Each structure stands twice: as structure tokens, then as C-alpha cells.
Amino acid sequence: MHSSDLITLSDLYALHQKRSPATISNRIVGHARLFSRLKQGHGTTIKTYQLALSWFDRNWPEGLQWPDGIARPSASRRSAA
């Protein structure tokens, strides 16, 4: 679990969707502060990390490559099947 993974995902997703990371945070956890707090060095709970990672996995745009080095939950489920 690395906060930098969520920051990377939020920055790429927000840029691609032409939305701010705060807007994306609001969609995921109901407030706009998640990614700004992570960028300031604050942590998050495992539950929130998993919630955000799962949200990105389900909502990742087609045509946008998932970043190398970040395990994608759905890829893990496919390889286990």
C-alpha cells in the first residue's frame, strides 16, 4: 500500500477526464481532500486505500494505460481464475 499509487492514479485519471483531483476524490470518498492530504504527506486507512484503488479499477477509461508498477485489482482476479 503506497499513497504515491493513489496520487499517480488520481493525477492521470483527472488529467484524462479533464477534472480536478478534488472532484475525483469527492466521487470516491465523498469529500475533496483525499488526494491533497496524501500529497501533503498524510496517510490513509487501508479501507480507504482499497476503496479508492477499486474505484479506479472499475472506472479506468479505455484507451488510458494503467500505470506500470501499480497492481490492478481486476488483473489479479483474472490471473487467479
Describe this structure in words.
The structure is a single chain. The model has no long low-confidence stretch (mean pLDDT 92). The chain is mainly alpha-helical and 81 residues long. 64% of the residues lie in helices and 0% in strands. It starts with a helix and ends with a helix. It is globular and about 30 Å long. α1 (3-17) crosses α2 (21-29) and α1 (3-17) packs parallel to α4.
Throw out a few tags for this protein.
81 residues; mainly alpha; 5 helices; globular
Question: N- to C-terminal separation?
Answer: 23 Å
What class would the helix/strand composition place it in?
A: mainly alpha
What's the story with the biggest beta sheet?
Answer: none
Order of helices and strands: HHHHH
Radius of gyration: 12 Å
Whole-number mean pLDDT = 92
Tell me what portion of residues adopts beta-strand conformation.
Answer: under 5%
Low-pLDDT stretches: none
What form results from the Cα inertia axes? globular
Number of strands: 0
